[in-house]
Write a structure and sequence with these properties.
Layout (H helix, E strand, L loop, with lengths): L13 E8 L2 H12 L2 E4 L5 E5 L2 E8 L8 E7 L3 H10 L3 E9 L3 E7 L5 E7 L14 E8 L2 H11 L1 H5 L7 E5 L11 E7 L3 H10 L3 E9 L2 E7 L5 E6 L1
Parallel strand pairs: 1-4, 5-8, 9-10, 11-14
Antiparallel strand pairs: 1-5, 2-3, 3-4, 6-7, 7-8, 9-11, 12-13, 13-14
Protein name: VOC family protein
InterPro entries: Anthracycline_SecMetBiosynth, Glyas_Bleomycin-R_OHBP_Dase, Glyas_Fos-R_dOase_dom, VOC_core
Pfam family, one: Glyoxalase
Length: 240
């Protein structure tokens, strides 16, 4: 699949991801080796990951040890305040109100009615991914939900054109939790990164101190394996 520049991101498209980690330096070593990322200082305690110079993700230090070690996907919005209100009116929850991130843009953290956490990004100086849909970059976001019809209703209300409009290519799927995980697993988003060879990437994950949670298995969008990094953050490898 061809590379896509961040300028094409419309409302409701996944446009950025970040990981909240106890040890950012350890994260740089893990993901730098796994995906070939380079890093530069960004805002606060976070760093930007770059793939051949293009921004692909951020790694941030957890400010509270009670916070989960997790990857979060951010959906583009032209108006973070307005979209946050729509989330609340649709039965979701705003976890972090719109927060300016320097001159980069405005971030929101929210949860859908089942509790799956996601972000919103209103861009300013930083529009989002510099590259995606290639090995080492963002490839897909999968929501594992209890009720996929309810999820379609909620996200369709928020981002109808991105998900269901003419020519929509949302990079965002919905599936029942039990398709891959134990039924007791809470609903959640799983960020997928592209790889050329899923089996080879799984070997690298294990060598670097991560572990395999599920797969590889064949999904409608490619060959997928669910893994955790060496600090416990879950993500997926996607071979198209």
């Amino acid at each position: 699949m061809a590379e896509n520049r961040a300028s094409v991101y419309a409302e409701g498209g996944p446009c950025w991801v970040d990981a909240q980690l106890p040890d950012v330096d350890a994260g740089k070593r893990f993901y730098g080796e796994l995906f070939g990322w380079g890093f530069e200082e960004a805002y606060g305690s976070s760093v930007w990951a770059r793939l051949e110079g293009a921004p692909v993700a951020a790694l941030a230090h957890k400010t509270d040890g009670r916070m989960p070690t997790v990857w979060t996907v951010y959906f583009a919005t032209p108006d973070a305040q307005k979209t946050a209100r729509r989330i609340q009116h649709a039965g979701g929850q705003v976890i972090m109100a719109p927060l300016p991130v320097g001159a980069a843009g405005t971030a929101v953290l929210a949860a859908d009615p089942e509790g799956a956490v996601f972000g919103l990004w209103q861009p300013d100086g930083h529009p989002g991914f510099g590259v995606r849909h290639r090995p080492g970059a963002f490839a897909w976001a999968q929501l594992y939900a209890r009720d996929t019809e309810a999820a379609n209703t909620f996200y369709g209300h928020l981002f109808h054109e991105a998900l269901f409009g003419p020519g929509a290519e949302p990079d965002f799927g919905r599936a029942p939790v039990g398709d891959v995980f134990p039924e007791v697993m809470p609903p959640h988003f799983l960020v997928h990164f592209g790889v050329r060879d899923c089996e080879a990437a799984l070997g690298a994950v294990s060598r670097l101190g991560g572990r395999v949670q599920a797969g590889p298995f064949t999904a409608s969008y490619g060959i997928v394996a669910v893994v955790t990094d060496n600090q416990g953050a879950s993500f997926a490898l996607l071979q198209r």
